[in-house]
Amino acid sequence: MADYSIYLKPVYSRLADSLPAGVTLPSHWRSLSWHQVKTYEALSDPAIDVVFNTAITGDGKSFAAYLKPLVENCYAMGLYPTNELARDQEKQIQGYIQRLKSPYEPRVNRLSGADLEIYAENEGLRKSAAIDTRAGQSEILLSNPDIFHYLHQGAYLTDKDSPDKLWGKIDKYFNLLIFDEFHIFQAPQIASVLNTMLLIKHTNRQNKFLFLSATPNDQLIEKLEIAGFRCRHIDPLKEGKYQFPESADQGKQLIQTGWRQILRYVSLHFISLEPAFQASENWLKENSQLVLAHFQQYPGSKGAIILNSIAAVKRLTPFFKELFKLYGLVVGENTGLSGSQEKASSLEADLVLGTSTIDVGVDFKINFLIFESADAGNFIQRLGRLGRHEGYERNGEKITFENFTAYALAPNFLIERLFLGDNAPLEAGATYTRPFFNNQIEDKYRKINNFEGYYGRWGAVQSLLLCSKLGHKTIKQQYKDSQLAFRKACEEVFKTKLWGVSEKVKQWKEEWQDLSGNKTGNPVAEDASSFRGSSSLQCGIYDLTEPNEADRFKTYDLPGILSNLEIEVITKAEFMRLLEQTAGRLGQPIPKGRYEYSLAFMKLRAYRQERLNWKFTYTGDLQPVADAWKVQVLTGIQVWQPENYWINDINKRLKKQGLVSYALSKPVTEVRSRLRLPMHFQIYPISDNYSIHDAGAPYSIAFGQSALLVDTLAGWLKSNGGEIWIA
Fold first, then answer.
1. Cα separations in angstroms, 478 against 427, 470, 473, 561
2. Which of 673, 680, 698 is nearest to 688 (CA)?
3. Are the C-beta atoms of residues 521 and 511 closer than 8 Å to each other?
4. Which whole-number Å values give the CA distances from 663 to 640, 667, 702, in the listed order?
5. Nearest one of 125, 207, 115 to 169, comparing CA atoms
6. Over the stretch 369-384, which tens digit does the pLDDT of each residue have?
7. CA neighbours closer than 13 Å in the CB half-sphere of residue 692
8. What span, in angstroms and rounded, lies between the C-alpha atoms of 234 and 23?
9. Taking each helix axis from N to C terminus, what angle separates 288-297 and 310-325, rounded to the nearest 10 degrees?
10. Residue 712 CA to chain centroid, in angstroms?
11. Residue 315: band (very low, low, confident or very high) from pLDDT cuts 50, 70, 90
């Protein structure tokens, strides 16, 4: 097999020549990085509203974010895309407080959806009161942008409450709002943050906004500048604040002249695989001795395997646990279906297997990494977990890593583009800087769609909701001018008129009434107004494979269940009875609110070794639906999977459910390829009454927020253009 290996130079970051006034560091600290001082200065500048810090991964962006709250009377809310990252950041910030001996000793708390539910139940509070209380007990509050979105929409309030009851306090209380790892979000989430920032700006709040990401989001920056936000982009790479020495001696010279090392020298091996299901999983099983050999050759190593599939990790974890325990090595697991105890202990293991729950910003201390990826950003993000630390402490002893090695399980077409041909940008055995290498990955790897059309077509639906809230009778007079300014800004940013959006919202509601006979609700508008979209296919899971009883209650989408899980369908009553019994036996609350709208409930017995084939079906003719080229609420959708007897129980409930949908008269593989959809994009095969017995499925269907995203791209698949419904 051909050897496709390269080396990545270490990275050194420039230290600042001086510290900002009022900032004192511990005696053993040399200085702050250049970008950390510039971030502090920008956040202190009254002429700057929004700061973007795009320092390289591992260069201390998080410390730059929280320096001001640690040395000044500045309250901050940090918003993280995953609860795992928020948990990791809480530990980091507590460490900053101890090392800096902060005179303010800020109180640091986390608030996730589960935390909120448990806190509200324990204290006997409504969720709005629980948020208010938790915020008031924190100088630094770590949460997620989902909660931030919904509290500004009034989702935690009653009809009798003033719409600004929560955000009126929250926005005034927290001077600084921090959005971390923002590059992982798609257009709907960016639209939400834009709308919320515009609301804050035009209700006369003087907040500062800080975005931390190794990759700048040009869509966001452009739209913020259109809205009149004064932005500052701090880019150390562009300013020449990184060096990439050729040798250890050059590295020592850099340290002596005001630089610090942030990433180590890395040996990167590309493993060429066919882009087929379970290719990475099979390679890992076949080459498990290669993995073990690294730990035997370099005692004290720490490693991670990051894969795309939860099911693959679930199948591989017991395999590696069995292999490694013979040598006294511990294997951990960290996925979206892993319990909280398993997640918490996994990062201390010798080898952790995980998915995106650990590749987004979590501060690993590892020297060995195997990873697969789905696109350029995903590749760079995962590789960035390696080389950040020279070692770790174990039982008071400092362990220093001897080397840093990565294996990229890559599709063969990527390796061909990188290494083969007359103009191949990489040569096996050569050494490159990280920026150069990252540029080659971005140029040669699969590019995913940025859904630029979403903003004008759907982003203003959120604007309409917020604008109407400002006109509520309890605050109408107070925010009269704010409402007008907010409306104007939204129309400029999203390039649309809210009156046109309002007419469409009314039309969707009428169509829903005609379909369901229900006078309340508007599923299309609700999905467009949500942060990540509602999941009409989400199921409650009682996970019998989970050793920790309190963590057995989970949710998972039906498509993933159909493909990968061995389950037993149970009733909602039985599921809730199990939950209550477990909570009582353990003497601790288990959140139950997220199961209220689950499609079905089931016990998870095992993970399948082979993925099952299945498809959705439609009780009628799908061609007219697909020919409409628009988002529709459909009923009569079911699942075809003859291997599972229990699917009939699911179909009885699913058939009656109205699903926000977008149907296309092309198979899934073609749609995914032509629209450049992200790997986990929720689009599925579907047949109708006329194609149910075909070997494949001639149609594709997306649900919920994914349907709205497909709607912005469908014109690419049409031969004669499409309707533009918001003028």
1. 65, 9, 10, 50
2. 698
3. no
4. 17, 10, 7
5. 207
6. 999 998 888 899 899 9
7. 15
8. 20
9. 50
10. 21
11. very high
- H or E element in which residue 487 lies: helix 480-494
Could you tell me how many residues make up the chain? 727
Could you report the per-residue pLDDT of 557-596, keeping only the tens digit for each? Answer: 999 999 999 999 999 999 999 999 999 999 888 888 889 8
| Beta partners for residue 308, in sequence order | none
- Res. 529: pLDDT tops 50: yes
Please give the torsion angle defined by the CA atoms of residues 361, 366, 372 and 374, in that order, rounded to the nearest 10 degrees: 20
**Six-digit token pair at 188?**
């709907």
Residue 206 CA: distances (Å) to CA of 170, 174, 232: 12, 10, 16
Give the Å distances, CA to CA, from 522 to 306, 321, 513.
39, 48, 9
Q: Is the pLDDT reported for residue 155 higher than 80?
A: yes
Place of tokens 């515009």: 198
Question: Which of 247, 239, 188, 221 has its CA nearest to residue 35?
Answer: 239
- In degrees, to the nearest 5, what angle opens at C-alpha 97 toward C-alphas 96 and 99? 65
d(CA 24, CA 47): 25
The secondary structure element, H or E, covering residue 370 is strand 368-372
Do 357 and 333 meet the contact criterion of CB atoms below 8 Å apart? no
The two tokens of residue 656 are 């009656």
Tell me, letter by letter, the H, E, C secondary structure of 95-136.
Answer: HHHHHHCCCCCCCEEECCHHHHHHHHHHHCCCHHHHHHHHHH
Q: How far is it, in rounded angstroms, from Cα 94 to Cα 105?
A: 10
| 677 Cβ neighbours under 8 A, 6+ residues apart | 448, 449, 671, 683
Q: pLDDT value at position 1?
A: 53
The order of strands in the sheet holding 553-557 is 553-557, 538-543, 601-607, 565-570
Torsion angles phi and psi, residue 548, rounded to 5: -90, 115
DSSP string, 252-318: HHHHHTTEEEEE--EEEEEEEE-S-TTHHHHHHHHTHHHHHHHHHHSTT--EEEE-S-HHHHHHHHH
Task: Please provide the DSSP assignment of 662-724 as one string.
Answer: EEESS-HHHHHHHHT--TT--EEEEEETTTTTSSS-SEEEEETHHHHHHHTTGGGG-SS----
What's phi and psi for 258, nearest 5 deg?
Answer: 100, 35
Residue in this structure with the two tokens 């001018």, named with its chain if needed? 481
In tens, the pLDDT along 348-359 reads 899 999 998 777
Residues 6+ apart with CB under 8 A from 716: 674, 675
The tokens for 573 are 């009553």
210 in Cβ contact with 51 (< 8 Å)? yes
Q: Which two tokens stand for residue 288?
A: 């498990």
**Secondary structure in 3-state letters for 213-264:** CCCCCHHHHHHHHHCCCCEEEECCCCCCCEECCCCHHHHHHHHHCCEEEEEC
Burial of residue 620 (CB within 10 Å: 0-12, 13-18, 19+) is middle
Question: Residue 266 corresponds to which tokens in the numbers above?
Answer: 């890395």
For the record, the structure tokens of 102 come out as 């902060």
| First and final C-alpha spacing in the chain | 57
667-685 b/e (C-beta count within 10 Å ≥ 16 → b) = ebeebbeebbbbeebbbbb
The owner of tokens 């080389």 is: 387
> Residue 524 corresponds to which tokens in the numbers above?
């299309």
Cβ proximity of 536 and 528 under 8 Å: no
Give the DSSP per-residue string, 152-197.
HHTTTS-TTS-TTTTHHHHHHH-SEEEEESGGG--HHHHHHHHHHH
Phi/psi for 414 (5° steps) reads -65, -45
